[in-house]
Design a protein that fits this description.
568 residues; elongated; 22 strands; alpha/beta
Length: 568
């Protein structure tokens, strides 16, 4: 079967409605004993094409051939009949079932003989180099183990053609190496493999050929050993793109957020964060690495005031030196107390003394901006609401799977979504749309948001473009602390590099940037320091300029003794 065509598409077209053409006349093929990487920008039609091959969608036009014969795949069941299996990025497993139960789930007429199934699963695992416990429950498994179950599930059902969608997105470097070793064994066994990934270094390492889609159309296929990352990117976007992450040197970094002995127990009584201690500095990017579910999300939410801490402090050094005092966070009594402590001065340098002044006179001085801070203001964010923390300049931009669930309203247009943070500042029934409109236009231009106009409802945009609007809004707010989690999740290469370089610009402006990412190569290239979290604890902090992926990978899987857990 080696070098025989496994699957081929000819002039495949798929439309959604009358205006959206996801795929247009796409023709490509993959052979047995070959790994084909599928590349393309967000919205280029990669997943749509694979969904047609795996039976989730049905093409409007064109043909699909398996082993040289035309086939009609109208369901995933049809795809399995033609020995096609797709491993989706978001696993489709039943958490309360074991690995073995999930592997045989849905196979009509299959008698459940646990010993026979375990033996068959072990045979597949040994053949390709998997490590699996058939009797282990899914909810007890790591991400890598769940992925192994998904792959064995399609192999168990006889798949000779495998499609993997972003298979390394949440794996450690060590787990990625194991997966690639498995893929190579499957290739040697004659399997045809299609892999969708945005990581060009992985494309170069694991694939034999690369097919590129652009705006739903097939651009071409090249042999991996005859191309470069830059050439592939140019095929994807239609022009030369510099694949360089700008990492400026930190200049005079200053403490901005100091976390002391932070502990968080969730509503189910689970200890999610344990004795967390670290400092984020203005003028640097602090990366956070960890296996998915290690507490990264909860840590950022805790700093932003969204979680009620069990214990610990979140100390914010507000850069207020020589800046005016306001009543937004300070009551009149607190301003009087701080004045007695010598915290303020006037523009001429004279110490502020409110002795003999009425409350109205004090309010007038503060409202006129004449009372200035001597030093940066130190605030415990545990005492503040999420709104107050945000107004202090501590911004959180978390990009989840459901992008419209975190800060954007689908039925609102882009301008209105820019205004969400400022509606309460409008006077009367009128709000000023000019500044949000200008901001929307800037984000559309700088981040290359594909949209008919700034007045288009965000629910009509592709997932990647919704993400650009979400991240762009937070970056454009000139924050003092910017916390971003997975800001390029699912974005194409060109868009990702735009975001990386915008984060470096924020760092140059003195912002403390906290960056939670999945790609260790990016963390190492972009950040100044990388803090690693394992099972809710900090397992190490490394210098991004001198560390290695292997060192970070070991810290990501570090286990703690009870004594270490108690001491943080």
């Amino acid at each position: 079967m080696q070098n025989m065509t496994a699957i081929e598409t000819k002039n495949i077209t798929k439309r959604f409605g009358s205006k959206v053409v996801a795929n247009k006349n796409v023709s490509l093929k993959v052979n047995y004993g070959e790994v084909l990487a599928l590349l393309g920008e967000n919205g280029s039609g990669k997943t749509t094409l694979m969904n047609m091959i795996s039976g989730i969608y049905y093409p409007d036009e064109g043909q699909i051939f398996v082993n040289g014969k035309e086939v009609f795949i109208k369901s995933p069941e049809d795809a399995f009949r033609y020995r096609i299996g797709m491993i989706h990025q978001h696993f489709k497993l039943v958490n309360v079932f074991t690995a073995a139960q999930n592997i045989v789930l849905g196979q009509n007429g299959k008698k459940f003989n646990i010993n026979k199934i375990n033996s068959e699963v072990k045979e597949i695992a040994d053949k390709y180099g998997f490590t699996i416990n058939p009797n282990k429950k899914i909810y007890d498994m790591s991400v890598s183990e769940k992925q192994t179950v998904e792959i064995i599930k399609v192999l168990y059902r006889g798949a000779d053609i495998l499609i993997l969608d972003e298979p390394t997105a949440v794996l450690t470097p060590q787990e990625t190496e194991k997966l690639f070793a498995v893929l190579k064994k499957m290739k040697e066994d004659g399997k045809a493999i299609i892999i969708i990934t945005h990581k060009l270094n992985e494309v170069m390492e694991v694939s034999d050929k690369v097919s590129v889609l652009r705006k739903g159309e097939y651009i071409g296929t090249v042999n991996t050993n005859e191309t470069t990352e830059n050439q592939l990117t140019e095929m994807m976007v239609g022009r030369k793109v510099e694949l360089n992450i700008n990492r400026s040197q930190p200049t005079d970094p200053k403490d901005r957020i100091i976390i002391e002995n932070l502990n968080y127990v969730d509503k189910d009584g689970v200890s999610v964060l344990k004795n967390i201690n670290f400092t984020a500095k203005g003028g640097e990017i602090l990366g956070i690495a960890g296996i998915a579910g290690s507490g990264q999300k909860e840590l950022l939410e805790s700093i932003a005031g969204l979680n009620k801490l069990s214990s610990g402090e979140v100390i914010f050094h507000n850069p207020k030196k020589n800046a005016p005092v306001t009543f937004f966070h300070k009551t009149l009594d607190r301003v009087k107390e701080l004045a007695k402590e010598g915290a303020f001065h006037y523009e001429n340098g004279e110490r502020v003394d409110f002795t003999g002044k009425s409350d109205n006179e004090i309010r007038a001085l503060v409202d006129d901006g004449k009372v200035l801070f001597n030093e940066d203001e130190i605030i415990n964010l545990r005492d503040k609401t999420p709104l107050q923390i945000r107004e202090l300049g501590v911004r959180l931009s978390f990009v989840p799977e459901d992008r419209l669930g975190m800060g954007l309203v689908g039925n609102m247009d882009i301008i209105d979504n820019m205004m969400l943070r400022s509606y309460r500042k409008g006077k009367g029934v009128f709000v000023n749309r000019e500044k949000p409109g200008n901001l929307a236009d800037t984000i559309i231009k700088d981040l290359e948001v594909v949209t008919p106009s700034a007045r288009t409802p965000v629910r009509k945009l592709s997932g990647g473009n919704v993400q650009k609007v979400l991240v762009g809004r937070e970056i454009s707010s000139s924050p003092k602390v910017l916390m971003v989690a997975y800001p390029v999740r699912g974005l194409d290469v060109n868009s990702s590099y735009l975001i990386y370089n915008l984060l470096d610009e924020q760092k140059k402006n003195g912002t403390a940037v906290v960056f939670v990412g999945e790609d260790l190569d990016v963390l190492i290239a972009l950040c100044d320091r990388i803090m690693v979290i394992s099972s809710g604890r900090i397992s190490g902090v490394v210098d991004a300029r001198t560390t290695t992926k292997e060192e970070i990978g070991k810290l990501m899987t570090k286990s703690f003794t009870e004594e270490e857990g108690a001491n943080g």
